[in-house]
Amino acid sequence: MSAFTKVAGRAPARLLALAVLSTLAAATIAIAPAAAQEKQPKQAKQPTPPQTPNDDLRLATELGFEYRLSPPWRLRLDSQLVLDHDIDRARRLELRPGVVYAITPHWAVVGGYVQYQPFTTQLVATRGPFQDVAFGMDFGHLSLANRLRTEELFFDTDGALLIRTRYRLSAQHPIGDSPWSILVSDEVYFNLKTDGTGRTAGYDRNKFYGGLVLDIGRGAKISAGYELTEVQPTGSLNEFHTIKLGFAFALN
User: Fold this and answer.
1) Residues 6+ apart with CB under 8 A from 185
2) Hey, which bits of the chain come out as E strands?
3) Do 125 and 158 touch, CB atoms closer than 8 A?
């Protein structure tokens, strides 16, 4: 998950179950209206959903798990459910399994698969491999993390291909001797290849995040914060405001 650094230990079973049930409940509530519409007769044509408005308010719930195979090798599974239209419509579910290899205490590489599954006809499902190169360092109590991610996304409709790269810089600092810490990050997106997608190569968007992280212990962390997304796909700036809730667990 984007809001967390490495965790160790075993997650409390009750908190783990609560996070999973909360995510499933949110998905069920959000998807139910769409499923009901699909069951209606085809003759009753549904109106096209409105375009996502500028300054839209969204909610993103993140859930991440990590399992250590050996000192350098780890398995990760990250997911994110996004609600848009002022937190009134299910927009997308993201699933991202991957394998992490720690080259040194500061350097790591990640390889895996990602799928963006939409819940609205305005979006197209995309999927494909991704690769990360991560570097972290500490300056006293301040932890800095750099991540360069590349995604090769294949569209389900007509074989369109989007290759993009994302660079994120994050900083985390504890609040005194408490288990709380402040986390801020900035991530910029660039489209490298846009065959058949209708998108423009070059700069695509920027995401700035600020929030709090609570280290519960035994491998569990939760976070809450705000993310501002600025998109410039066709030369006209569009902004989204996202409330983010995160749960991260180390299983061993």
Assistant:
1) 2, 3, 168, 169, 170, 171, 207, 208, 209
2) 56-68, 73-84, 89-102, 107-118, 126-139, 142-155, 161-174, 180-193, 202-217, 220-231, 238-250
3) no
What are 251's two structure tokens?
A: 């299983």
Domain 13-36+59-250 in CATH 3.90.280.10? The answer is no
Tokens standing for residue 218: 């035994």
Dist. CA 202–CA 233, nearest whole Å: 9
The tens digit of pLDDT for each residue in 17-70 reads 545 444 544 444 444 444 444 444 433 333 333 456 788 999 999 999 999 999
- As a residue count, the chain comes to 252
- Alpha carbons 171 and 162: distance in angstroms, whole number: 29
Please give the pLDDT value at position 52.
Answer: 65
**Domain ranges for the chain:** 13-36+59-250
pTM over 0.85: no
Residue 239 CA to residue 119 CA, distance in Å, equals: 21
The pLDDT value given to residue 186: 98
Q: CA–CA separation, 185 vs 240, rounded Å?
A: 16
What are the structure tokens assigned to 129, written together?
A: 């491999």
Residue in this structure with the two tokens 């991560």, named with its chain if needed: 134
* Cα 1 to Cα 94: distance, rounded to the nearest angstrom: 11
The reported pLDDT for the residue numbered 111 is 98
Distance CA 94, CA 119 (A): 11
pLDDT tens by residue, 71-105: 999 999 999 999 999 999 999 999 999 999 999 99
